[in-house]
Amino acid sequence: MFEVLVYLFENYFEADVRPDPVTLAEELSAAGFEEDDISGAFDWFRTLEEMTERMPDATPPGAGSVRLHAEEETGKIHPEGLSFLMFLEQAGVIGAAQRELALDRAMALPESEVTLEQFKWIMLMTLWNQDKAGDYLFVEDAVFSDSRPTLH
Fold first, then answer.
1. Residue 10: what pLDDT?
2. How far apart are CA 149 and CA 138, in angstroms?
């Protein structure tokens, strides 16, 4: 399903092209994607949009606050992905609400493990969906750059 998400994002959503779901499903099927993966990707994006609409204004956590991850999260999301998430929050790129949204969407993937690259894509989609262009560009650079961002 993750491949469908990336394909949709790169070919449609990033360009703000939204064909009707039936046509889009037919195009994805013709591109070789399985029906279950297509349906799952549609649900994933629909939930992302619904959660974004209900999301409170992003406020940074209080100084010294710590987010402890559930065992299910640490078992599924690669430690580098969680470190990347912490980096974005500490750098002020995302707030607590965006962090929780990204974690929810990572946990919603059917894959048994979410890699760092996959988590970066999730952040990219999450920020783009929220019209956070500047933050999106920061994460996009992290996704496509061959070097890692400097952590201070």
1. 86
2. 10
